[in-house]
Design a protein that fits this description.
Layout (H helix, E strand, L loop, with lengths): L3 H9 L2 H16 L5 E2 L11 H11 L14 H12 L12 E4 L1 H13 L5 E6 L4 H8 L3 E6 L9 H7 L4 E7 L11 H18 L4 E5 L22 E6 L12 E5 L6 H14 L7 H9 L7 H17 L12 E2 L8 H8 L4 E2 L1 E2 L9 E4 L4 H17 L3
Parallel strand pairs: 1-10, 3-4, 3-5, 5-6, 6-7
Antiparallel strand pairs: 2-8, 7-8, 9-12, 11-12
Helix pairs in contact: 3-10, 4-10, 5-6, 5-9, 11-13
Bound molecules: pyridoxal-5'-phosphate.
The site of pyridoxal-5'-phosphate (PLP) has 13 residues, from helix 5.
Length: 393
C-alpha cells in the first residue's frame, strides 16, 4: 500500500520511537517517576513571557491570519535581517535575503528542493541529525557521510577533501551540534572554506554550505558562534526558534542567504517558490509575529548549563567518557559496551532510556538529551551509579 522507500525508511528510523515505547512500557511496571528518560530532544523550557504576550496581542489583529507573501511578513523579515546583520562584517544582508519557514526542518527541505538536481550529492558530518538523510532523499539527492574526529567531533577536513566530487552540491554543517553538543571552531570553518574553494576551482562547480543552527543561542560561558556568512561566500543559514524560544510546536524558523552568492535573486525566488510548492505556503503568521517580538529573548540558558554541569560531573565521576559540550542540551558519551545498541538495551534494565550513536551514523556512542526536569536528572544518578558498578567502570 505504501511506497517501498518509505516502508524501508520507517523501519530504519525508529530508535527514538522505540525508546519512547519502551519508556511507556517501563512506566506501567515501575511508575513514571522511576523512569529516567533521556531519549527525546523536546525542549523542556517554556517560551519567554514576551513571546506569549505577543501571540495573544497579535491573535486579534486585523488581517494577520490571511494569506501573505510566501516569504513571510515584510516587517518580520526585516527584523530577522537586522539581527543577522549584527554579526556580519559588511552588513549587506536585507529582508530580501530572508525567507520565514516552518522551522529548521521546513527550511532545510525548502533549500534542498531549490538547489538539488537528481543524483547530486550532499555531504554531512557524522554524527548527524538523522532527519538529514530523509530530507536529502525527499529531493532525490545522495547523502555522503564524513566521519568526524572522535576526540573532539570537529569536522574532518582530510576526509572532506577526498569526498568532494563534481557532483557535490551542498555541505550541511550543524553547530552547536546535535547530538554531540560541540561548537565548530572558527579556524576549522575557515580552513574548510579554503578546501571548498579549491575543490570548486578543480571541478568548476558551486558548493552551498547549509549551516543548520537551531541551537545557536543555546551555548555556554558566553562563547560566540562564528557567523558563517563571514566565512562561506555560498553560505545559507537555516535557523529556528524551536529550541531558543521553546516554540517547537509552532513550527517557525527562517532561511538567510549570503547576499554575495552569484545571482542571489534567482536563488531567493527559487526558495520562495519552493516554500510555497512544498505545501508550506508560508510560515505560521502568529508565530512569525511572536519571534520578531521575542528576537532579543531566549529560554533560560543558565538552566540548561546547570544540567549539563551536573550530568557531566556525575557521569565522568562514574567513569563515563565524553567531550564536554559547549552548547545544545545533549551529551554524547562513549558507550561502555562496544556495541552501543546492546548498551542502550542494557541501560533499560536500570530504567534509563538513551539513544544509540548508531542512530546518528556514529556507532560506539550514545546520546542523552537533558532538556528534562532537573528532579528526574537528580533521581537518575543512583541508577547510573548502579549501572557503572555492574559494568566495573
Ligand atoms: N536540525 C537539528 C540539528 C535539530 O536537532 C532539529 C530538531 O531537533 C531540527 C533541525 C529541526 O528543528 P525544527 O523544530 O526547527 O524543525
Amino acid at each position: 500500500m505504501i511506497s517501498n522507500e518509505i516502508n524501508k525508511n520507517m523501519q530504519n528510523s525508529s530508535w527514538i520511537r522505540k525508546m519512547f515505547e519502551e519508556g511507556e512500557r517501563l512506566a506501567k511496571i515501575h511508575g513514571k517517576e522511576n523512569i529516567y528518560d533521556y531519549s527525546i530532544g523536546n525542549p523542556f523550557a517554556e517560551p519567554p513571557i514576551e513571546v506569549i504576550n505577543s501571540l495573544i496581542k497579535h491573535s486579534s489583529e486585523k488581517g494577520v491570519h490571511r494569506y501573505m507573501s510566501n516569504a513571510g511578513f515584510l516587517d518580520v523579515r526585516k527584523t530577522m535581517a537586522n539581527e543577522i546583520n549584527k554579526n556580519i562584517i559588511d552588513k549587506k544582508l536585507s529582508y530580501e535575503h530572508v525567507v520565514m519557514t516552518c522551522g529548521a526542518a521546513g527550511a532545510l527541505n525548502t533549500v534542498l528542493r531549490a538547489i538539488l538536481n537528481p543524483g547530486e550529492e550532499v555531504i554531512v558530518f557524522t554524527p548527524y541529525f538523522v532527519e538529514y538523510g530523509f530530507y536529502i532523499q525527499n529531493h532525490n539527492g545522495i547523502m555522503v557521510t564524513i566521519n568526524n574526529e572522535k576526540t573532539n567531533f570537529q569536522p574532518n577536513l582530510d576526509e572532506l577533501k577526498k569526498k568532494i566530487t563534481k557532483k557535490t552540491k551542498a555541505i550541511i554543517i550543524n553547530s552547536p551540534n546535535n547530538p554531540t553538543g560541540v561548537v565548530y571552531k572558527e579556524n576549522i570553518l575557515k580552513e574548510m572554506s579554503l578546501v571548498i574553494k579549491e575543490k570548486e576551482e578543480e571541478f568548476n562547480s558551486k558548493i552551498f554550505i547549509i549551516s543548520d543552527e537551531p541551537y545557536s543561542k543555546i551555548v555556554y560561558n558566553n562563547i560566540k558562534i562564528p557567523n558563517i556568512l563571514n566565512i562561506f561566500e555560498n553560505g545559507i543559514i537555516v535557523n529556528s526558534f524551536s529550541k531558543s524560544l521553546g516554540l517547537a510546536g509552532e513550527r517557525i524558523g527562517y532561511i538567510a542567504v549570503n547576499p554575495k552568492i552569484e545571482n542571489v535573486s534567482i536563488l531567493m525566488n527559487a526558495l520562495i517558490f519552493c516554500n510555497r510548492t512544498l505545501g508550506f505556503g508560508n510560515a505560521p503568521a502568529l508565530a512569525q509575529k511572536a519571534v520578531a517580538d521575542g528576537i532579543n529573548s531566549s529560554v533560560n540558558i543558565a538552566d540548561y548549563q546547570e544540567k549539563r554541569d551536573f550530568l557531566y560531573d556525575n557521569l565522568t565521576r562514574l567513569g563515563f567518557t565524553m567531550v564536554n559540550p559547549e552548547g545544545t542540551f545533549y551529551l554524547f558519551p562513549k558507550s561502555p559496551i562496544k556495541n552501543d545498541i546492546e548498551f542502550v538495551k542494557f541501560a533499560t534494565k536500570y530504567n534509563i532510556l538513551l539513544v544509540p550513536g548508531s542512530g546518528f551514523g556514529c556507532p560506539g556512542y550514545f546520546r542523552m538529551s537533558y532538556c528534562v526536569d532537573f528532579n528526574m536528572i537528580k533521581r537518575s544518578i543512583s541508577a547510573f551509579e548502579k549501572m557503572a558498578k555492574d559494568l566495573n567502570l
